[in-house]
């Protein structure tokens, strides 16, 4: 969970003092963000402060440091977790409503391979 500075940075120096984690520093050519220090300002501010002040909008999410993706299921199946589905499948139950056909095939293969 970190942001990065692209080469569109104009070295205006505005973002560096705004960072609550001292994650921004001047690199060899442009400013950079230490991905191990950047928390996207979580715990300090509602919005990333560097993004708020950057005049050229050159601070996107660092794709190498995305740690969590939330995949929200439909309302109907919010109570279902992967553990439930696996357990039901292991006990021979029908989970075809909860998973895609390809996942269903793999689950069936796995159940078969664990049968005595
Ligand atoms: S998002 Fe926040 S913590 Fe990360 S570099 Fe910008 S100001 Fe610093
Ligand atoms: S505010 Fe934007 S343009 Fe200015 S130094 Fe920071 S990243 Fe570069």
Task: Describe what is shown at a glance.
The protein has 116 residues and is mostly helical.
Q: Which whole number gives the mean pLDDT?
A: 86
Unreliable spans are: none
Range of helix content: 10-25%
Largest sheet properties: 2 strands, antiparallel
Describe the protein.
With 116 residues, the protein is mainly α. The protein has two domains: 1-68, Alpha-Beta Plaits, CATH 3.30.70; 75-114. The protein has three helices and two strands, in the order ββααα. It has helices at 49-53, 82-90, 101-114, and strands at residues 24-26, 31-33. A hairpin with a 4-residue loop joins β1 and β2. The structure holds iron/sulfur cluster (2 copies).
Any descriptors?
single chain; 116 residues; mainly alpha; Alpha-Beta Plaits; 2 domains; two-stranded antiparallel ribbon; 3 helices; 5% strand; binds iron/sulfur cluster
Chain-wise SSE layout:
Elements: E1 24-26, E2 31-33, H1 49-53, H2 82-90, H3 101-114
Antiparallel strand pairs: 1-2
